[in-house]
Design brief:
homotetramer, alpha/beta, 8-stranded parallel beta sheet, 10 helices
Chain lengths: 220, 220, 220, 220
């Protein structure tokens, strides 16, 4: 599984979000690897209309329908075509009680929940809240091009061990610094089920080629 | 001018956001009154495609394009079809420096900025930051059905006086509790150029009728 | 163990914080029950000088010494005489990563960490981060006079079960609505090691009598 | 006027806060210049007992007495001996409505309010809220050793002009990068009434000498 986080990069905003999602869809169909795209909220509907691969929101707020101007409602991203959501990304961290609440909201709205975590104990803590996916991303490696799977393999394996003690079902991903197909292959060998990536794809001159490389590395 | 804030009401989410925007467009065309709709981020693109009246975002974050997962980029709401944005709504308040920064971002992206404020001195403070629109909304009246224009007429007239000392150009609206055509008429008589409304329209059994009543009262 | 949270009640500010702490000390010495007081930051030093019972801060920030104007440094509360700190109280909630960071800071500065949690899964999640004390407080009962130990005994017993799976050492307290000695007795019977209380003591006409009642109930 | 912000520097925590405050008092008495110290909350009481110069809090929260665990109450810092407070420092920024509320709280409790701002329009906006002191600090210069009075003299003079249009009474200070007596002298020549400083004093090998230099430059 590969999740591509579009962040607020201009290279993945508006029309370019749709184009990038189509390249992800192409790589997914050719390889059979599950590739998910996570565009900005304002682009969710257009991206979801344009592609058949899963589309995730980048965040939802722990609010219910009502008087919450400027907030992100699970119901709204669902109706816009999202089938899941990132939660607690290091650039959009939540209070613990809100992580719990948003996982519950996602569950009720049939949205796949992918909670981002930063170290093994925090990942294990989150495992107890039973999200669908846990993605470990040491914040200090994000955007560096130094892959967590290579720089901190023990962070990944420790996380898997600690998470599995209390949760045998969550999909475990790793992120931060994933730049080459080899990084993806190492991540899988360490026991994860995939990767969460952003700049390596979004900022690439030819995102399709990199995505294809990542997807191919996921098959081996 | 009437701005309809959809908040995160289910009655104004997804398809229902598009329907409500169409009723606003109908009332606007029939009366010649400028009616603006402010749907949720995930609904911006579909609403903007469906109607010709102005569409505003409910909030933008003080961030630039880049690594800001889960944030609201001015560029993204613009490309989704928004022509303006609410800023600092009482349900989504900002730090002072971020109010200034988002007004500047909006300006650069040619988005109309509508800053919400809660009392006369705060409104005058905001006037110095030169947003396009200032909307005064005493938080204690929001959602009550008690109109600010009737309950606190002096809050409205004091605001106008203080704002005009330093800013002769900003459009001044008032909000909170506006429920009847008469509330709109009083607001205009007090010297505002219009109203910011939410539940009175969104929660109405027949939003078009109320909108039409508000628009008609705006013409007298 | 009884922790008395002074919150920002005027009845427990300044001189009155010192007086209340002395009554807590008296009740503690007479009964042999460990009573801890948690005054406001500005009162920590005077309270810690006046009594020999443990004094906790109400919160620490996840910051290091440096350029963090207006923040609460673990080193500062320690030097003021605190021997522990509340973390993540429902009125001062933290991001998950900051809960982890503040527990680590407390550990390094030899401060006892007491993390407040709101439901069994969240308590179990926190248990993985190994604070010294976990205090479960369903936010909907805080300040109601309806004791968590009576209204939601299963919340307490479920928490204990889930916490003990991953953490056999943390002291487990319960809070919210504790008003009578009997509530304390029930809390202990359910398997906790004590209670976290606030208004029942701080707002009492005669705090000593209530504290003494709570302490006596802790001995049975 | 010179305000020394102790931030959360270890060099100005606990006993060392008291020592530094005494050196400030010495420089103040010798020169007749008003020197204010702003230690951490936990150190307020001990510092205020040890010196006769004014002691400010670094922040207060926009809360009233009551159930606000871990917050900073105006009443508590007042009773601990503070005679004023910083508000909205760039490292502890507030929502606009909370800046207004804390200025009001400070006024009611007879605490001098010193609001920090970052650019001329924001300073003028704050001027409308009538704090006692406005201190302009361009965030990009804080801690750099490049003095705002030299690097951005027009920021200072523009601020003074804009502030004076609406507020003739507020004391105007400037901060950020003030390192030498000459920086202070320039700040005064530009029309300010003093400076807000931190690392140049707190991190100095001999804080007294620098403080004395600053105070002497304030007299010319």
């Amino acid at each position: 599984m590969i999740i591509v986080n579009f962040k607020t990069y201009l290279e993945a905003t508006g029309k370019r979000a749709v184009e990038l999602a189509k390249e992800a869809e192409k790589a997914s169909k050719e390889t059979g690897i599950n590739i998910v795209v996570a565009p900005q909220f304002a682009d969710l509907a257009r991206v979801a209309e344009a592609v058949e691969i899963p589309v995730y929101a980048q965040h939802i707020d722990a609010v219910f329908p009502g008087a919450y101007t400027g907030h992100i409602l699970a119901e709204a991203v669902k109706e816009a075509g999202a089938s899941g959501t990132l939660i607690n990304h290091s650039e959009r961290q939540l209070k613990l009680a809100d992580i719990d609440a948003t996982i519950r909201h996602a569950e009720e709205k049939d949205l796949t929940s992918c909670v981002c975590t930063s170290n093994p104990p925090i990942s294990a803590a989150v495992a107890y809240l039973h999200p669908d996916i846990i993605s470990i991303e040491p914040p200090e490696l994000i955007g560096t091009g130094v892959a967590v799977s290579k720089a901190q393999p023990e962070a990944v394996t420790d996380t898997i061990k600690m998470v599995r003690k209390v949760n045998t079902e969550a999909v475990i991903l790793c992120g931060a610094g994933i730049s080459h197909g080899e990084d993806v292959a190492v991540a899988l060998k360490l026991g994860t089920q995939g990767v969460l990536v952003a700049s390596a794809i979004v900022k690439a001159k030819d995102p399709y080629t990199i995505l294809r490389e990542f997807a191919d590395s996921s098959r081996t």
